[in-house]
Amino acid sequence: MTRSLRILQINSGGGWSGGQYHVLLLSRGLRERGHHNVIACPPGSALAERAASEDLRVEPLEMRGQWDVSAVLRLRGILKRNKIDLINSHKPLPHTIALLARGWGGSPRLVATRHVTFPLRRHLFRKLKWVYGVDAWIAASEAVRSGLITSGVPADRIDVIYAPLDAGRFRREISGASIRKEFGISSDAPVIGQVGDLRPWKGYSDFIRAAALVLQSRPEAHFLAVGRKNEFYGELSRLAGRLGLSDRLHFTDFRSDVENCYAAMTICVSASTAGEAAPYALKEPLAMGIPVVATRVGGSHEVVADGVTGLLVPPRDPPALARAVLHLLDHPELRRSMGGAGERWVRERFSIEATASRTEALYQRVVGHP
C-alpha cells in the first residue's frame, strides 16, 4: 500500500514555460493520487497564480541568488510548517536553496528534476550540489539523462519521466478561426507556426529564413511566431523585414490561448538548436492532430517518430526545414495520416496519469529507502 506523502515542488521561474507547466500538471496528478502538494515559487509568478487558481497550496518564496540566506531560512520554515517528506527541485537556483535548507543527506529527501539537455555547470561545489546532495534524479527525456551522465551524475540515480501533457486542453475539435481573423489570415491559407520563448536556441532566426524560402513556392502562406516578446524580438523583427516577411510573419507575443494558435496552424515547426528535452511545443500540436516538423535536437526524436507523426531535419539548416514544410504542404493525405498517428502516440505516452504514477513510485522508493 502506498503512503500518502507531503511533497514540496520548488521552482524559481517568474514567467511561464515548460518547467513551470510541468510542476503544475504534476502537482495536479499527484493530488489526484492522494498526496499533499505544496508549491514554493516567487510571489506573483505565473506558476503561483495558476496553482492558486487550481486550489493547490502555494508558499511564496523569493529567491534572489544561490546564497540567499533569507530564502534558505524561509524555506526551512515552510518545510517545518507543512511537515514535508520530500522536496522536488526544478532549476539550479531553487535546488541550491533546497539543499541548504535541508542539509546534505538530511530530511526531507531531495529529488532534482532536469528539464533541459544543457550540461550541468562546472564549479568547485559541483559534486556536493549535484551528486552527494541529491537522493534521486528525474530526467525529462533520455537525451536529458545522457547529458546528466556526461556531467558526472551516476546513471543508476536517474529515472527518465516525461513531462505530462494536458490532453483535456489540447483537442482536435478546437477551432483556430479566431486567431486567423485576428491576424488577417484567410480560412484556406496554409499557416506554419512555432511556439516557444523568443530565445536564441529556439531557432527562430532559422524559422524566419525557412519561411522566406517557403514563400517562394507558396506565396499564400502565413507564419506565426507564438512567444513572449523580449530583447531578442527586435533582432528577429528586423530579420523578417529584411527578408520581406513583414506582412506574412505574425509575432503574437505571449498567449494564454495557445491551443487556439495551434488550431490555426496547418503545420507546427520546432527549429530549436539546443537544450530541448521532450518539448511541449511538439506534444501539444500532435495531441491536436497537427503534423510537426522538428530539428533533430535533444529529445525531439523521443516525441516525433520521423516519417510517422512528423518530419525531423538537421538543426541550423533553414533550406532543409523549408523543404520538409513544403513536402507536407504538397501532400495533404500525408499530413492527415501523420496528424492521426501523432494524436494517438502522445496521448498514450505522455498522459498526466502516467507521469504522476511513475513520479509517485520514485518518491515512494526514495522516502522508503534512506
Please supply descriptive tags for the structure shown above.
single chain; 370 residues; alpha/beta; Rossmann fold; 2 domains; seven-stranded parallel β-sheet; six-stranded parallel β-sheet; 15 helices; 13 strands; elongated
Give me the secondary-structure topology.
Elements: E1 6-11, H1 18-32, E2 36-41, H2 46-53, E3 57-60, H3 69-82, E4 86-90, H4 92-102, E5 109-114, H5 126-132, E6 136-139, H6 142-150, E7 158-160, H7 177-182, E8 191-195, H8 204-217, E9 222-226, H9 233-242, E10 249-251, H10 258-263, E11 267-270, H11 280-287, E12 292-295, H12 300-303, E13 310-313, H13 318-330, H14 332-349, H15 352-368
Parallel strand pairs: 1-2, 1-4, 2-3, 4-5, 5-6, 6-7, 8-9, 8-11, 9-10, 11-12, 12-13
Notes on the structure:
With 370 residues, this protein is an alpha/beta fold. It folds into two domains: 6-164 and 351-368, 3-Layer(aba) Sandwich (Rossmann fold); 177-349, Glycogen Phosphorylase B (Rossmann fold, 3-Layer(aba) Sandwich). The chain has 15 helices and 13 strands. The strands form two sheets. Strands 3-2-1-4-5-6-7 form a seven-stranded parallel sheet, with helices on both faces. It has a six-stranded parallel sheet with strand order 10-9-8-11-12-13, sandwiched between helices. Helix 1 links the parallel strand 1 and strand 2 (36-41). The protein starts with 5 loop residues before the first strand and ends with a helix.
* Shape assignment: elongated
**How many DSSP-defined strands?**
13
CATH class of the largest domain: Alpha Beta
- Which strand-content bin applies to the residues? 15-25%
Quaternary? single chain
Following the backbone from N to C, one meets helices and strands in this order, namely EHEHEHEHEHEHEHEHEHEHEHEHEHHH
| Number of H/I helices | 15
Q: Characterize the largest beta sheet: strand count, sense, and whether it forms a barrel.
A: 7 strands, parallel
For CATH, the homologous superfamily of the largest domain is named as Glycogen Phosphorylase B
The CATH architecture designation of the largest domain is: 3-Layer(aba) Sandwich
Tally of structural domains: 2
The average pLDDT score comes to 94
Within the CATH hierarchy, at the fold level, what is the topology of the largest domain? Rossmann fold
Distance between the termini: 19 Å
Helix content: 40-55%
Radius of gyration: 21 Å
- Structure classification: alpha/beta
As laid out across the biggest beta sheet, the strand order is: 3-2-1-4-5-6-7
The unreliable regions are: none
